[in-house]
Each structure stands twice: as structure tokens, then as C-alpha cells.
Amino acid sequence: MTDTQEITLWLAEPRGFCAGVRRAINLVEQALKTCPPPVYVRHEIVHNRHVIDDLKAKGAVFVEDLSVVPDGSTLIFSAHGVGKEIMSQAAAKHLHTIDATCPLVEKVHQQIIKYAEQNIDIIVIGKASHPEIIGTIGQIPGYKKLHVINSVEEAQKINIPTENPVGFVSQTTLSVDETSEIISVLKRRFPNLQGLAKKYICYATTNRQQAVKALASRAECIIILGSQNSSNSRQLKETALRNGARAAFLIDDSTELNWSAIAAYQNFGISAGASAPEYLIKKLLDDFRSRYHKINIRDVIVAEENVNFKP
Fold first, then answer.
1. Please, what are the domains in the chain?
2. Contacts 24+ apart (CB under 8 A), 94-100
3. For the whole model, what pTM was predicted?
């Protein structure tokens, strides 16, 4: 024991894997068992270093460029989705493809195609360089009335006539609050704005951010398990800081935690991004137990998730 003070660990619920991530990982694991090796995966199946390392150890080969994939091989599309061009490249190489795109991302794809068929202006809310946005835009290659924005300021400046019919879609892993602010601006600017029904907004993103808000009302220091390239994990850290946490850390695992930096705190909130495995939480709790004499563990439950997506 290195510290005799009493601390409380507040555990967010829900946290960690969402249904789309579980489905994607299961698809890779099934392919590794049933398809001739090697099994290729275009881009990281989900954005988490531990998941990728685990799957690499089982034989998965992750690639960005299909030119390195031998003709006739098995190729899995990541949970973020891909555009039509990637699908065409795979078909030209006669690849056996397995689509692990999250069904909620697939809903976004269907919606943007519907807008394009209506020949209306389309606003895509999200980071232009993120794989999910690249895949979404890639559903309608060459479409001229497409606008990508990622802030209230960009929503205010977007150059579309007010009277035009406009449809919008958004990245599923953004800040719920910030996205709502952007949509509010769009609604004020464009009376004929169309969008997906609220039920199609990613439940996992919403629930995990709400849980972190609840943590921030109880704990001075929030620890998020997740990789730096995980958008939803980064948003959990930012959500904590925007909602009252004095400090927030995003770490791949407990080995990255600066124990000296958190020594002044007594209440800790703990959560994990939608692509982070639960065993990382267990290891973090074990490390807390090895360092502190008295630990109280409390659950903070904001929702119950029973969503499952079939392969």
C-alpha cells in the first residue's frame, strides 16, 4: 500500500463495448476460425489498441490499402464503414468480403443515399478525416451538394440558400451536446431541414456521455479507458471536463496512469469508451487496490443496455 487515505471509485454504467463493437469483433473472430488464413481487415476493426493487438495475435492482418491484399482473400470492412470505391476495389480483386459496419452507421449510409436521390443539399456533421465520415461521404461519390461541418461556427457560415431543402446526418461518436447545438443552428437557418429520427442516434454514445456527466457530479477526477484515436473515448474525456470534473485522463490501460498526478483526489469516476474491453477496468481496479488502503466502489447507473446486433 502506498496511500492510507480512503477513496471512492464511481463506476459508470453503461461503459465499454457497445453492440456494434461486439458484433464487429465477433465477425473477425468467426472469420479467423472458419476462413482460410490470412484474414485481412481494412482499417482497425474498432479504435482500440488492445483489441487490435488481441486480434493480431489470433492472426488478423490489418491493412489500409487493398493493393496489398492478394486476390481472392477474405477481407473484413471495419465497424466504421467504407465507401462505394472501396467496395468496388474489393470486388475487382474477387475478395470474399465481410461487412462489419455498425448497423447504426449503416442507417446513416442509407439516409445520405436517400438525400442524394432527392437531389437536395446534404450537411454531414463530423470530422472530415474520420473513417466513419469518409465512409459516409463515400456512399455518394461525386455528389456536388455536399457540405461537411464540425462546429457551430461552420453551421452558421455554411453557404446554402435558406429556402433550399436540406438533409443532415452526423458521425455517431460525436459529443451529443455539441452536435445538438449544431443541429439547433441548422434548424434555425433552414426551415426545410430533414434529419434522422432521434431513435437512430447512437444509443451507446448518448448513454456513455450521460454516465460520465453523472460521474463528474460526484468525482473530482475522471479516468476514461480508451485509445487516443477513439473519437467516442475522447468525447468522454471532454464531457467530463465540460461538466465539472477538475481533471480527466484518457488512457489505454492502467500502466499509463500518472499516479502522482491523481494523488490529491479522493473521488474518482471510471468509465471506458465503446471499443474498450472490460478487462481493462478490472486491471485498473486491481491497481487501485494495490495502492490504497481503503476503497469504496459505487456504481452510477444511468441506463440499461440490452441491444444486440446479429452478425
1. 3-17+203-301 (3.40.1010.20), 19-101 (3.40.50.11270), 104-200 (3.40.1010.20)
2. 95/66, 95/69, 95/71, 96/35, 96/72, 98/27, 98/31, 98/74, 100/23, 100/24, 100/27, 100/28, 100/45, 100/76
3. 0.94
